[in-house]
Amino acid sequence: MENLSNISSVLVLNRLNLSSENVFPAFIFATLSYMIILFCNLVLILTIVLNKSLHQPMYLILLNLPINDLIGSSAFFLQIISDIVTNRKTMKYSACVAQAFFIHIYATGAVLMLTAMAYDRYIAICWPLKYNTIMIYANIMRIITVVWMSCLVLIGVLFFLLLRLPRCRSELTNPYCDNPSLLSLVCANTTINNIYGLLIVTISQVVSIGTILYTYLQILVACFRSKRSDTRAKALQTCATHLTVFLLLECLGLFTIISYRIKNISPHLRRFMGVSTLIFPPTLNPIIYGLRTKEIREKVVHFFQKRIIPS
Question: What pTM did the predictor assign?
Answer without folding.
Answer: 0.89
